[in-house]
Design brief:
heterodimer, A: alpha/beta, 4 helices, 34% helix, B: 358 residues, alpha+beta, Beta-Lactamase, Heat Shock Protein 90, 3 domains, five-stranded antiparallel β-sheet, 9 helices, rod-shaped, CheY-like_superfamily (chain A), Sig_transdc_resp-reg_receiver (chain A), Bact_response_regulator (chain A), transcription regulation (chain A)
């Protein structure tokens, strides 16, 4: 899957469900990206964000310590080097300002949407002009 | 007083009747300065608490107090000055300072030389006013109860909505876990039949997931749009295909169906499409699968067609799980299905009745 020409991204996975996290890691690997860490709670996620400064953080909203993914997104997106994307079955929890995230991938997601969203993020980060927003990915309001 | 009626009883009898009447009555002398009280009956003395000595010779305004309505007093004054009859309600004060609501009718009385007296008949309306006040209290109480009940219902609705969101969230999360579980196991299984089966299952779960994602994403959680589903499903299917050799195309109308039909319809479309891709194009054969769905008078008509080798020419498939699954799901939706060799390829026609107009 994936286009294969997207630049490899360094990705932090913030997901408390071990199975989902593990499968996502495999998928990211297949797509040619690098998983720099997996965090299941807010404290861990924010600490990992500081120590690894990832290109992308894929953030679930419900973590071990409650709906703290929002706080995680806010903290991680404060670092300009990191692009935050929510990945959740609970998109209704996302605040109006998206807590600094650029959008959301709705769970249950398909591999295609994860792949095309990461290509889109890579394009954006590379400053390529106006990449088309992939379907299945809902961008934050501008 | 001038009593002209020919059949009128003697004056003494009338005065006695007035004096003993339970209705308070008072007569003022219109010719004396400041229109003083000339006579009052016992009922009047009883209501006001004064003795006759204390009131005769004084103006009726002695019964007014700080809470008496100035505007009403002014109306009485004007009427008296113009010698016109008037009916008003006024808050009066007893001798002991307590108040009562006095409904009075003041009538000017003429004699041969003109205006002589004012006659005022009165009624204590205090209890009527109390009733109004208590009625207002009852209304307030009812309103309070209605507000409380509305509040309860609003809270109950909010809780129900929260519960629906929670269940929706869990269903989606569990679908994600199941899908991840299948794919993880597939990754760890050597290439072959077992791995294909696991990947096939993950794909079916993917189709169900797409249906679920669409079901609650819009405000309406009782309907499912087949057209939206087809668009999303198509994108997922084609992402796994080599676009040079194989394509899936869809022409599906925007048809709203009941939420309960989302899962069986999603499974059916997936199964027919996957089946065609799996069996119609052996080896490197190129091909196309098309999905067409139209709203009919009775429900939905769907045609899934491929330009492959056809049912008869396809490799025998003893398990035939996909086809069994489709027939089962169509039966569940009380529909009919017909498979035909189209030369080239296979055509599957399905009719599914819809209960309610979409």
């Amino acid at each position: 899957m994936g286009t294969g020409n997207a630049a490899a991204l360094r990705i932090l996975v913030v997901e408390d469900e071990a199975l989902i996290a593990l499968e996502l890691e495999c998928l990211l690997d297949d797509l040619g990206h690098v998983t720099v860490g997996v965090a299941g709670n807010a404290t861990e996620a924010i600490a990992m964000g500081r120590s690894t400064a990832p290109d992308v953080a894929l953030v679930d909203i419900h973590l071990v310590d409650g709906p703290t993914g929002i706080d995680v997104a806010r903290a991680l997106s404060a670092d300009r080097r990191t692009t935050v994307v929510f990945m959740t079955a609970n998109a209704k929890r996302i605040p109006a300002d998206f807590a600094g995230a650029i959008g959301v991938i709705a769970k249950p997601y398909s591999e295609r949407v994860v792949a095309s969203t990461l290509d889109y993020v890579a394009d954006r980060r590379a400053g390529r002009h106006g990449p088309a927003c992939p379907d299945g990915f809902s961008p934050a309001p501008v | 007083m001038s009593l002209r009626s020919e059949s009128a009883p003697p004056l003494a009898t009338l005065v006695d009747a007035f004096a003993r009447s339970p209705s308070p009555m008072v007569i003022t002398d219109a010719r004396a300065p400041d229109n003083p009280i000339a006579w009052a009956n016992d009922a009047f003395l009883q209501v006001t608490g004064y003795t006759a000595d204390e009131i005769v010779g004084r103006n009726c305004r002695m019964l007014q107090g700080p809470a008496t309505d100035r505007f009403t007093v002014e109306r009485i004054r004007s009427a008296v000055q113009a010698a016109e009859p008037i009916s008003v309600e006024l808050l009066n004060y007893r001798k002991d300072g307590t108040t009562f609501w006095n409904a009075m009718t003041i009538t000017p009385v003429n004699d041969a030389e003109g205006l002589a007296f004012f006659y005022a008949a009165q009624a204590d309306m205090t209890y009527v006013h109390q009733m109004e006040v208590s009625m207002r209290g009852t209304n307030d109480e009812l309103e309070r109860l209605v507000n409380a009940r509305t509040q309860d219902l609003t809270t109950a609705l909010e809780q129900k909505t929260a519960l629906l969101h929670e269940v929706d969230h869990r269903v989606k999360n569990n679908l994600q876990v199941i899908s991840s579980l299948m794919l993880l196991k597939a990754r760890r299984t050597p290439e072959g039949e077992a791995r294909d089966a696991l990947q096939g299952m993950a794909e079916r779960i993917g189709a169900l997931s797409t249906a679920h994602r669409m079901l609650y994403s819009e405000g309406d959680c009782t309907h499912f749009n087949l057209g939206d589903f087809a668009a999303e499903f198509l994108a997922d299917m084609n992402a796994g295909l080599d676009p040079e050799r194989r394509r899936v195309e869809a022409d599906v109308e925007s048809i709203a169906v009941a939420a309960a039909m989302a899962a069986p319809l999603a499974l059916m479309i997936h199964e027919l499409t996957a089946n065609a891709l799996r069996h119609a194009f052996p080896g490197e054969r190129e091909g196309r699968v098309s999905i067409v769905a139209r709203r009919t008078e009775r429900g939905i008509h769907m045609t899934i067609r491929d330009d492959g080798v056809g049912v008869a020419a396809a490799a025998p498939n003893p398990a035939g799980f996909g086809r069994n699954l489709v027939e089962m799901v169509v039966r569940q939706m009380r529909g009919t299905i017909a498979w035909a060799d189209a030369g080239p390829g296979t055509t599957v026609d399905i009719d599914i009745p819809l209960q309610q107009p979409a």
